[in-house]
Fold these 2 entries.
Entry 1:
Amino acid sequence: MQITILNHPLVDHKISVLRDKNTPSPIFRQLVEELVALLAYEATRGIRTEEREIETPVAKTVGRMLASPRPLVVPILRAGLGMLEGMTKLLPTAEVGFLGMARNEETLDIVTYAERLPEDLTGRQVYVLDPMLATGGTLIETIKFLRERGADHITCLCIIGAPEGIEALQQGVAGMENVNLFLATQDERLNEKAYIVPGLGDAGDRLYGLAE
Ligand SMILES: O=P(O)(O)OC[C@H]1O[C@H](OP(=O)(O)OP(=O)(O)O)[C@H](O)[C@@H]1O
Ligand SMILES: O=c1cc[nH]c(=O)[nH]1
Ligand SMILES: [Mg+2]
C-alpha cells in the first residue's frame, strides 16, 4: 500500500480549527469540504484518462478526459458523508455508492448496516472517503468488500490517521496491488477507547451531532 501524507501549511491551519472543540458543526462541515478538495487533488493523480478529439474555436486537437468506466466514490456513513460534496465538486461525473459502517465502541467490531454499490466493480477505480482512520478496522472491511466485488484500484482519503491504524491497514491489505492511502495528517496514537489523540473527537458527532 502506498501512503501519502499531505504536508502543507493550509492543511495544518484547517486541521487545527477542526480539532478545536469549540468549532461549531457548520464551520466543521465547511472545513472538511475544503480539506477534501486538497486531498482529492493529490489522490486523483493516478485517475485514468483517455484521449478524446475535441475542437476548439481555433483548431482540432486531442485532449484527455476521464476514462470509462467512471470512477466510483464511496463515502463511509456517517462521517464520510461530510467529505462527499467536496469530492464530487472535483469529480462531478463520478458515480457515488454508499457503505454504512459503524464501530461498536465497546468491542470495536465493525457492523455494516447499509450498502448501495454496483454489484460488479470489475475494472473500476474506487475512491473511499472516511475522515478518521483509528484502529483501521473499518477501512480493512471496506477494502475487502470492494475487492470481492472486483474493484482493482482503491484509494482511501482520510483526514486523520493513527499510527496503529495505518500499521493494521498495511498488514490487512498486504499482497493487494493498487491500494493507496492519502492522509491530511498523522496523529500521535490511540487512547484506551481507540480514539485518535489529539484527534478531533467523534467525526460523525462533530459533523452531524445535535447542538448542545
Ligand atoms: O479505524 P476504526 O477504528 O474502524 O474507526 C474509524 C471509524 O470510526 C468512525 O466512524 P463511526 O464508527 O464512529 O461511525 P459514524 O461515522 O456513524 O460516527 C470513522 O468515521 C470511521 O469510519
Ligand atoms: O478518534 C476517533 C476514532 C474513531 N472515530 C472517530 O470519529 N474519531
Ligand atoms: Mg462515530
Entry 2:
Amino acid sequence: MAACKERQSPLWRLEGVDFAYRGKPALHDLNCVLQSGLCTGILGPNGSGKSTLLDLLAGLLTPTRGRIWFREQLLAKWRRRQLARQLALVPQHFGLGFDFSVRAVVAMGLHPHLGRFALPTGADQDWLDLVMAQTGVLALAERPVTRLSGGEQQRVAVARALAQKPEALLLDEATASLDVGHTLALLHLLRDKVRAGGLTVVAVLHDLNLAARFCDELLFLHGGRCLVQGPVADILTPENIRAVYGVDSAIRADAFTHALQVSLRLAPRERAAAAP
Ligand SMILES: Nc1ncnc2c1ncn2[C@@H]1O[C@H](COP(=O)(O)OP(=O)(O)OP(=O)(O)O)[C@@H](O)[C@H]1O
C-alpha cells in the first residue's frame, strides 16, 4: 500500500507495555509506534498476543505495566465516547444475540456521533446505505443479523465499524470467514480509504500474502514480544518467518499482483515430527 509520508505521525505509542490475564503474562515489554495514514499488519502464531494487543490499542484492556499513548494523550485518559469517535474495533468474534436487523446493527456505529436522544437524520441514513453498499451488505439490510452466514455477519461488523467514521480502524482477522472475492473487495476498499487519507488501519492477519499485498508495515509478535516491525519489504524475510512460525519460505515479487508472494513449507525437522 503506497503510503504518503507527509500524513504520517505517531498515532499510538507504546512504552514498556506488559499485559497479563489474572497473572498469566500475554504481552511483554512492547515498545513501538504505530503511524497514522498506514495499514499495519499484526502477525504472529496462535496465542502470540495479537488480539490482546488490539484490545489494548482499543482501550478495552489496560496494561499491567507501561503506558499507551493515543494522539499524544494517555489512552487511559480518553473518555469512552470521545475515543469511539476516533477508533473502531472489528473483533474476532461478532457476538450479537438479539434479532436486530442488519440496518439497526450498522446504525449502532453512529451512536458516538449522535446526541443522547437524537435519531439518525436523512443524511445519516444515506451514510449507512453507503457503508452497507461498500461492504456488500445493503441487500441484507432488513434481514435479522443472527440469521446471516458467518461471512455475512463479518461484513456487517465491518460496516458497523465504518459507520462509526473512525480515523483508526482495528481489525481482528476481519477477513477470516470471507471468500476470496469478498476478502479482496474489503481489503481494496480499506486500502483505498487509507490512500485517500483520513484512515489508519491496524489489522491482525494470518495470511502472509494478503499482508504483503495490502499492508505498508508489519509487526511480528512471538511469545508476547515484538520480534520485528517495519516496512513490508524489510520485515517479510525467510529469516523472520522462520523465527516466528518455524517454517521455511521462499519470497519473490509476483508478476500478476506486483506484490511479494510467500511460499511456505514445513522445515525438515517439523516434517519429521509431524510424520505418523
Ligand atoms: N480472556 C483470557 N483469559 C486468560 N487468558 C487469555 C484470555 N485471552 C487470551 N488469553 C491468553 O493470552 C495469550 C494471547 O492470546 P491472544 O488471543 O492475544 O493471542 P492471538 O495471537 O490473538 O491468538 P490467535 O491467533 O489464536 O487468535 C494466549 O496464551 C491466550 O491463551
